[in-house]
Amino acid sequence: MADWIRQLIVDGGYFGIFLLMVAETVFPPIPSEVIMSLAGFEAAAGRLSLPVAIVVGTAGAMVGNTMWYFIARALGFDRLRPVVERHGRWFTVDWSEIETGERWFRRYGGWFVGLGRIMPTFRTLISVPAGLVRMRFPAFFLWSMVGTLGWVTVLGTIGWTLRHTFAQAEQWLNIVTFALVGVMVVWYLWRVATWKSAQKE
């Protein structure tokens, strides 16, 4: 997967980064840690501009974030629950997790949205309770932008720094990328396999 992601970035440039980050917010097992680190890596090689890659990556993530917000807002709690209970396994989320996110959201509001953007899994899920409780869209967008921009900047900078710091950075990054993707795939399969038992608890 790492080679495929890198090739899409090389061939597609900024548009490739944009598409990958949209996909990452829709299908979490495609990790932003890999996408933006590789984008930073390519920027350090002179093929991209790091600031532009960060802006484009943030924009792609925000498309996905906003999509989930409006889907949840349109559905509402009553119409969302049957969808989650029927298909939640494939989204790796059950209704109890939606309720937990909603309670935390009502307590911490915008801060929860901003901080949620740097947490695995929650980066996508946090849009759902925000839409369900009908958080004002300008506030949702602002807090999401702040958290997403910060996270994307950190990841892109890590990739850029690695290429300048380590002689064997490319080989090391490939190992880390493989490990990250492997962990995400195993986590996803584990969530799918154990989802029903979590529902019964």
Automatic annotation (TrEMBL):
Pfam families: VTT_dom. Residues 30-160 form the VTT domain. The keyword Phosphoprotein does not apply. One of its GO terms (cellular component) is plasma membrane. Its main location: membrane. The chain crosses the membrane at residues 12-30, 50-71, 140-160, 172-190. The keyword Metal-binding does not apply. It is a multi-pass membrane protein. Keywords: Cell membrane, Membrane, Transmembrane, Transmembrane helix. It is found in: Cell membrane. This is DedA family protein.
